[in-house]
Design goal:
Helix content is about 25%, strand content about 25%. It is of the alpha+beta class and about 350 residues long. It binds cobalt (II) ion.
């Protein structure tokens, strides 16, 4: 998952030439460190340079750009230590990985201690997110949020699942404004008007719990608040069609219909996933209209995590770090994620009270 030729090629040249057309002094540097400069530009400034982008339509917000100078990959990002007594998931210590856990259909035995452990992991992830939300303020850095999340998780005897997952260097993902998913916590300070997704996964007693939601920083404009409200509704629409014997494709249909109706596009690049002893596995949950086969079965647990984007282009490109996914045209995006457990008679969201 490190930066590859494929990722570099994915940087849209049109966007790049626009950025390079900026007189450097006009790009506000919200943070200058000895190592890197975080660059953000106001959406209105983009409009000045390239009216066809229609940035005004998307509202007023800071656009997140890759820090300069570019550093490829994330191997330079320091990882916080985890106390030795905390049990790591197998991917962190590959030598111990005797089995990848992907055998079978991933269903858990309902009513067993498997279900209890799964629910405990889900509940802890939810608590972590509640705690993180109390710390979201103008001026806080996303790395400060990461530090608090890391601390909270290890204090509760769990491991922050993203840390070391395919080389990811932090305990959580923080995705601001035009960042769709997989933003890496760093020393950029949250701006008044930012919208922020925090995505938390914990590994507790052998099970992963995964949830994310949006947070508003200071005064968020009307367009940003509407995007978040509709994303919340889209997730609920997806949850509402879940149950034993229901087709998986009904989730994508429900989400896509709502997004269409409210004028947003749905990313088809990022999917929900089966979860339990394994972080990501089948069933893969598509959030866009699709015709994939498959029916939901009791004992299956999976995430639904729709990512909605302003306007009609839901595509993304990846920053040189190899992880951070921005919308191609720097429109804002919002995402929300819950874990759904299919029971004998219905479906239960286990990442909320
Ligand atoms: Co997830």
């Amino acid at each position: 998952m490190f930066a590859s030729w494929r990722a570099i090629r994915a940087i849209p040249t049109r966007l790049f030439s626009r950025q390079l057309a900026f007189p450097r002094a006009s790009v506000p540097l919200n943070r200058v460190s000895s190592r890197q400069r975080h660059r953000t530009i106001a959406s209105s400034e983009v409009d000045d340079v390239s009216p066809e982008l229609g940035a005004d339509f998307f509202g007023t917000y800071s656009i997140i750009l890759p820090p300069e100078p570019f550093v490829f990959g994330v191997s330079h990002v320091p990882q916080r230590p985890v106390p030795p007594h905390i049990v790591r998931p197998p991917y962190v210590t590959p030598a111990d990985d005797q089995s990848n856990g992907l055998s079978g259909d991933g269903r858990i035995q309902l009513g067993s201690c498997e279900e209890r452990k799964l629910r405990q992991a889900a509940r802890l992830a939810q608590r972590v997110l509640d705690h993180a939300g109390t710390l979201v303020k103008v001026g806080t850095t996303t790395d400060q949020l990461d530090a608090a999340i890391h601390e909270y998780i290890v204090t509760h005897s769990a491991y922050p699942s993203p840390l070391g997952y395919s080389g990811f260097p932090k305990a959580c993902c923080t995705s601001v404004n035009n960042i769709m998913v997989h933003g890496i916590p760093d020393d950029r300070r949250l701006d008044d008007g930012d919208i922020l997704n925090i995505d938390v996964t914990v590994y507790l007693n052998g099970y992963h719990g995964d949830t994310s939601r949006m947070f508003l920083v200071g005064n968020v404009d009307e367009a940003g608040r509407d995007l978040i409200a509709v994303t919340d509704m889209a997730l609920e629409a997806g949850i509402a069609v879940c149950g034993p014997g229901q087709p998986f494709k009904s989730i994508g249909r429900a989400i896509h219909e709502l997004a269409d109706f409210r004028g947003y596009s749905v990313s088809s690049q990022f999917t929900g996933h089966g979860i339990g002893e394994v972080f990501h596995r089948s069933p893969w949950i598509l959030h866009h209209r699709n015709d994939e086969p498959g029916l939901m079965l009791p004992g299956q647990c999976f995430t639904i995590e729709p990512c909605l984007v302003q306007g009609t282009n839901p595509r993304s490109w990846i920053f040189p770090d190899g992880w951070t996914a921005s919308t191609e045209n720097c429109a804002r995006s919002a995402q929300k994620e819950h874990m759904v457990l299919i029971t004998e008679h219905g479906a239960e969201v286990i990442t909320r009270d």
